[in-house]
Structure formats: C-alpha cells, structure tokens
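User:
I study polymers; will you set down one protein's sequence and backbone structure tokens?

Assistant:
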Amino acid sequence: MTTLLYLKTSVNGDNSRSDRLSHDFIAARRWNQPELQLITRDLVSDPLPHLGREQWDALRLPPEQCDARQLAYRHQSDQLIAEFDRADAVVIALPLYNSGIPSQLKAYFDLLARAGISFTFTEEGPKGLLRDRDVYLIATRGGQLGAEEDHQIPAVRQFLALLGITRIHTLIADGLDLSAEQRERSLLAAGERIAAMA
C-alpha cells in the first residue's frame, strides 16, 4: 500500500488555493492508486512549537540533560521524522507569505532536521540520512516572481536536499490576484500540470 503524507500549511482556511490544488492532486493520485493511504498533517489547525532556546537544546543535548518539556519536544521530533520517512510520497501545500514559506512549515522543518538522525555532517558537507522519495510542492502566489526573486522554492529544495530528498516536483500557480483572466489561465495550467504529475 502506498502512503502519501500531505502537509497543509495555509492559514486561509476554506479559501486556500494551495489547499484546493493539493486536494486536486491527491484526488488524481487516488484515481490512479485507489489503495492510496493518506496521512494529513495540518500545521495550522495543529501547530507545532517554534524553535527557541529550550527547543534547540532539546534536540541537541543528551536526553538525560533534558527536562520533561524538552523530552516531549524531542519525542515529537522523533515521531515526525518517522512519519515523514514512512511516507512513499509527500505533498506540501506552499502558499507564498511575504516572499517566504509559512512559519508553520518552518517549525515543522526545524523538528525534521536532526543531526545524526535525518542528516549527518561529513568532510564533504551535510549528507541526508532519509530515504529518497517523490515530494510535490504545490505553490500558489497572488503575484508573479522572476527566478532571481524566488526565495521560496529554492529554500525548500535546499532543506529537502539536506535530508537526502532529491526527487522534487514543483507546481507554481501564480498571478492569482492580478486579474480574473490571469487567475483562470494559471489555474487551468495548474490543473494540466496536476494531471501530468499525478
């Protein structure tokens, strides 16, 4: 049975376009793989703690030096890494907020990146320790960015590479707030791309 992990990151609720397109992708994937098992992690409705000094120490100190709250945070990190690593594929809804990724996704990434567990340091640089798999980035943007202005997709790609993930597929639906015509064109193109990716 194929397991698909869906990371929901939009704060826009039922109006979320990244969520809508992600659901379209998941539905198309289920059409091709009826036995697909979906795991949804809603990082907005069930937020993770953001990284602070206490959390930083929790992930780096020996367990015997951690207090109860730090051990709970460490355990949460262990669970998220195991869940991610079990998934055969991952879908990340990726709205653009102030030129970057949602802070909820950053909090998730901070729990996923563990030296000695999900990556390691070598003389040649960091090396990912997680199993490679397909990751689908479903990005939505109100405006349009040139490649040199995009600090979102490259940052996510770089992070995933840290863990050893190289099979990354990107869909960008942009210009969604420029005009009704541009929105229609962009969503139509996104639908075609979804059909090809799924």
The chain has a mean pLDDT of 93. The chain is about 40% helix and 20% strand.
